[in-house]
Write a structure and sequence with these properties.
By secondary structure, the protein is α/β, with parallel strands linked by helices. The protein has two domains: 116 residues, 3-Layer(aba) Sandwich (Rossmann fold), CATH 3.40.50; 73 residues, Arc Repressor Mutant, subunit A (Orthogonal Bundle). The chain is built from eight helices and eleven strands. Helix 2 packs parallel to helix 3 and helix 6 packs across helix 8. It is elongated, with a radius of gyration of 19 Å. Pfam families: Response_reg, Trans_reg_C.
Length: 223
C-alpha cells in the first residue's frame, strides 16, 4: 500500500485527513513538527509527503529541502499560505505540487495520484478473483478490462480489498464508507451499492465469488 507522511500540527485536520486517505487506499502516518518529520523519514519508507508550511517547530520549507536532498520523496505543500511568494518559494525548494486550505478532499486525492504517477511511485495493486484495484491510479480492472465505478462503489470495493478475508458487518461498512464531505449512506443505500458493485465485478452476480455474503454476519472478500 502507498505510504504517505502527513506533516501537519492541526490535530483536527490530521484526524480527518488520515481517515479520508485511508478510505481512499492510502496508508498515512502523521508528524506534528520538523524534527518528528525528519525522524520518521529517516526510519521509514515513504511514497509521498504532505507538508504544511507552518509547523510547531521549524517550517515546511526546511523539511521539503531535506526531503528532496536526502530522501528523494515527492512533496505536496498543504497550507493556508496561498500568496504568490509562498507558492513560488515552495516550488523553489522542490515541491511537486501545492494546494491551499481549505481544500476539497477529492481534489487533494487527485493531485496525490498525479504526483505519484509522475514520480513512478505507484502503489501495490490488489488482486482477487480476476479483479485488480490500483489505489494510486484509482482504477479497477476485471479480467484485463477496466471497470468504471462510482465514487462510492469504488470506496466500498477498497474497503473489501483492504480487509481481505475479514468478515465486515453492515454497520462496519456503513462506518467505512461515510464520506468526509458529509454524504449520508444508510442501510438501504448500502444494499443498493453492494448489488451495483457485484453487477460490475462478479462473473455471476447472483452467485458472487469476490464479495460473498456471510449469513447473519455481513460480507467478506477473499477466502
Amino acid at each position: 500500500m502507498t505510504k504517505i507522511l502527513l506533516v501537519e500540527d492541526d490535530r483536527k485536520i490530521v484526524e480527518n485527513l488520515r481517515e479520508f486517505l485511508r478510505r481512499e487506499g492510502f496508508e498515512t502516518e502523521a508528524a506534528a513538527g520538523q524534527q518528528e518529520a525528519l525522524e520518521k523519514l529517516e526510519n521509514g519508507s515513504w511514497d509521498l509527503v504532505l507538508l504544511d508550511i507552518s509547523l510547531k517547530d521549524g517550517n515546511g520549507y526546511a523539511v521539503c529541502s531535506a526531503v528532496r536532498e536526502r530522501f528523494g520523496v515527492p512533496v505536496i505543500f498543504l497550507t493556508a499560505s496561498g500568496d504568490e511568494y509562498s507558492v513560488v518559494t515552495g516550488f523553489d525548494v522542490g515541491a511537486d505540487d501545492y494546494i491551499a486550505k481549505p481544500f476539497r478532499p477529492r481534489e487533494l486525492v487527485s493531485r496525490i495520484r498525479n504526483v505519484l504517477r509522475r514520480n513512478n511511485r505507484l502503489g501495490k495493486i490488489m488482486e482477487y478473483g480476476g479483479v485488480s484495484v490500483d489505489a494510486v491510479k484509482g482504477t479497477v480492472m476485471k479480467n484485463g478490462r477496466e471497470v468504471f465505478l462510482s465514487a462510492l462503489e469504488y470506496r466500498l470495493l477498497l474497503v473489501f480489498f483492504n480487509n481481505m478475508g475479514i468478515v465486515l458487518s453492515r454497520n462496519k461498512l456503513l462506518e467505512e464508507i461515510w464520506d468526509i464531505a458529509g454524504e449520508y449512506v444508510n442501510d438501504n443505500t448500502l444494499t443498493v451499492y453492494i448489488k451495483r458493485l457485484r453487477d460490475k465485478i462478479e462473473d455471476d452476480p447472483q452467485n458472487p465469488s469476490v464479495i460473498r455474503t456471510v449469513r447473519g454476519m455481513g460480507y467478506k472478500a477473499g477466502d
